[in-house]
Amino acid sequence: MQHPQRPDITGKTVFFTIRLKDRTSDLLTREITTLRHIVSETRRIRPFQIDAWVVLPDHMHCVWTLPDGDGDHVHRWRMIKGRFGRTVALNPENGLSPTHKFGLFNRKLREFRIETQWDWEAAVTYCWNDPVKHGLAETPGDWPYSSWHRDHLRDVTVKPAEEGFGLMAS
Asked: pLDDT category, 162, cuts 50, 70, 90?
């Protein structure tokens, strides 16, 4: 079977959407401390910059900038998804069987290479506004699991993006 060739994203900025298989689950927000720890550990081992990130109950969006000379986002996501699955499967309160650790996330991740300032602003704005779109918050600042808070404190602002970034709709 021939695999589609991935574009070269070495040192580039990329928007990702990662979904749980169970779209009714709230596992990502319920286990937010675990997820944050695993992302932090992954960044320690395989560095990348987080430009934006939002975690919703059943999916997350993020914008990463990879280091120059390194385009291996696939290995980073394997680390995050695998460690998260193994860790939350150990907690009996989650009601997951040990075999669930291998199947929490959709295998496919959506990725969109950021090529322009407009792409970047649209992707970051999409992350910030997704909880509002899903009716989880009235404003981006009301949702606790978003880089909006970090960026707002650093006075990072972007212009409102048009709906053109809807190709990442969740």
From this structure: very low
